[in-house]
Amino acid sequence: MQGADPQLVRHAIETSDPLPGTAGFAGPVDGALVRDVLGRYPLFVEDRASMALPDWSADRTDLYEPVSLPAGHVKRDGEEPQQVWSLPDPTPYQHEREAISDLVGAISEGIAATRPDDAESVAIAFSGGVDSSVVAAGFDAPLYVGGFDGSHDLEAASTAAEAMDRELHVVEFTVADVERAVPEVARAIGRPDGMAVQIALPLYLVAEQARADGYEYLAVGQGADELFGGYAKVARAPEDPRVDADTVRGAQREMILTLPDQLERDVLALRAAGVEPVAPLLHDGVVETALKLPADSLVDDRGERKRAFRRAARQFVPDSIAFREKKAVQYGSLVGRELDRLARQAGFKRRMDDHVSEYIRSRIA
């Protein structure tokens, strides 16, 4: 069982408790396969109906036809997966001060609960944004940022590291790095998809360097945008056509439910690079607190996103970081730009339907 004691998982099944105080789990228990409600650990089963007992693995490349076990499900021998956990829908906080106080405590507990026993075995994936900076504040560990020369992420990480008085390791990408890593990442995550590879590839390259430097774990800030209202489409709900929800809290929940798919991609990429991810902001206590935030603590009436999280972050990082805006990794690192350029140089023009994905498929054919 990855991520949790089997006895705790048994109790979570018996009580239908979706957030029993872990940072996720997946694996076998009492002859069944289980995966936590947010899918924080990947788990795959063999999609071969002739098999009486399903083969399974945490690594999709171990299987002939791997299929993800859905998050929040249990699969018993010879049966279809059954959902046993779903996200709770708690009553929102009435007072923001209480929400922020609880969030500070939950973040601190998440950091403590996910810290590896060997403190010297962990490095931090650091972009200079509020999410990774809060995580970095909880670890006495080196900071690693990756990107092309002149990219937003290298500049943001440099100024944030200086504000936090921390040493920064810069992993400067080259076109050759990206070209080499494209098929490696696409195969590892099982998705020859342009956007998925653009997001996973910077993590992969940073993780490769951290592993080469001797680190076994990479602490990441994943989950904060989904949990705390970091997306513009959440702020614009229900007018934004990219969300189905008709409220900000509904849109937040919609984004949280995308995490199993996103986390599978990121965890597989990091493991392929040789490190194990550590994600304090996805600990159950943080998730539970985030689900109780009212709409105006996610996005306030001035349009400020992640309002409560930014105010909680002030307990960990300087205000200049807590209230900083951040670009998505594929844009902040300039990996998206360079993948587009590589695709066009290989003859896949923008007028084609999803030309970057077509380029990636050609590299793994």
What's a concise summary of this model?
It comes from Natranaeroarchaeum sulfidigenes. Keywords: ATP-binding, Nucleotide-binding. The chain has 365 residues and is of the alpha/beta class.
Description:
The protein has 365 residues and is α/β, with parallel strands linked by helices. The protein has two domains: 6-83, no CATH class; 96-336, HUPs (Rossmann fold, 3-Layer(aba) Sandwich), CATH 3.40.50.620. 45% of the residues lie in helices and 12% in strands. The protein has helices spanning 6-15, 96-114, 130-137, 152-163, 175-189, 194-212, 224-228, 232-235, 248-256, 259-272, 284-291, 295-298, 307-313, 319-322, 329-332, 335-345, 355-364, and strands at 26-29, 32-35, 44-46, 56-57, 66-68, 73-76, 82-83, 122-125, 143-147, 168-172, 217-219, 276-278. It has a five-stranded parallel beta sheet, sandwiched between helices. A four-stranded antiparallel beta sheet has the order 1-2-6-7, with helices on one face. The chain is globular, with a radius of gyration of 20 Å. InterPro entries: Asn_synthase, Asn_Synthetase, Rossmann-like_a/b/a_fold. It comes from Natranaeroarchaeum sulfidigenes.
Name the quaternary structure.
Answer: single chain
Provide the low-confidence segments as ranges: none
The largest sheet, given as strand count, sense and whether it forms a barrel, is: 5 strands, parallel
In helices, the fraction of residues equals: 40-55%
Radius of gyration: 20 Å
CATH topology of the largest domain: the name is: Rossmann fold
**Number of structural domains:** 2
The average pLDDT is 94
CATH-assigned homologous superfamily of the largest domain: HUPs
